[in-house]
Every structure is written in C-alpha cells, then in structure tokens.
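Protein: NfeD-like C-terminal domain-containing protein
Species: Variovorax humicola
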Amino acid sequence: MTRPANDKPMTPFAANPFIFIFSAVLLVFVLGYYAWGALDHLGLAEQQASATVVDKHYNAPGETYRTTIAGGRAWTQVDPTPDTHVLALDVAGQERTVAIVGKDMYEWLEHGDRVTVRMHRTRLTRRLEVIEVTR
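Structure follows.
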C-alpha cells in the first residue's frame, strides 16, 4: 500500500493540539507569577521608622495534616508548625502592619511600647513588610 503524494505523516501537534496550547498557557502564567513577585519585591529600598506596639499575639506550636494519594492509597502525613510571636505595629502613626519576632523580644515588649522597625514597601501591592524590630 502506498501513500498519496500530498499525505503527510501526523505530527504530535496535529494529534493533540490541546496539550501544546495548555502547556504554553501554563508556562506563561507560571513565568508571569514569578515575574510579578520579582518586580514587587526585588531591590526595594529599606526604610527605618518608629512604631508603636498595639497588640501581641502568640500562636502555639501544633501540627497540620496533608493527605497524599500515591499508588491508589491515601497517606496522611503530619507536618509540625512552630510557635510564632507576632506584634501588631502602628508605623509612624499612619499604617498598621505585623512583625514576627523572637520570644525574648515578645516577652520584653508591652502594649504602647515604642520600637524602631527596619522595613520596605512593595512596589505593586504597596504593603509594608517589616524586616527587623529593635528596641
């Protein structure tokens, strides 16, 4: 049996174009996500400001669970979560943000105490991110 002269072999794209289009769209979204994060966070100028402790919150250590299905079986795995010491801060009397600090700093500070924060503001989302809290 011979093939007609204009009959070409089927290419993978012709066989299933969805997988190629879906892969390209997925790649664009993943690259866009990381580009957004890089643009929003990289190379930000650090600032220093005075802040007031307006609230303190302690999150006890615990466990979180996740289920993975492998080989047709469900495997529940335990992931430990550490304790966190969180301060709610009023920065320069204008904006509130939070900072995670060590246990010593958390126990030392009280409501209304003044602290110095080293921070930066993200470019696109305009959030204040605290880098360090000092007394």
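Remarks: Residues 88 and 98 are 4 Å apart (CA to CA).
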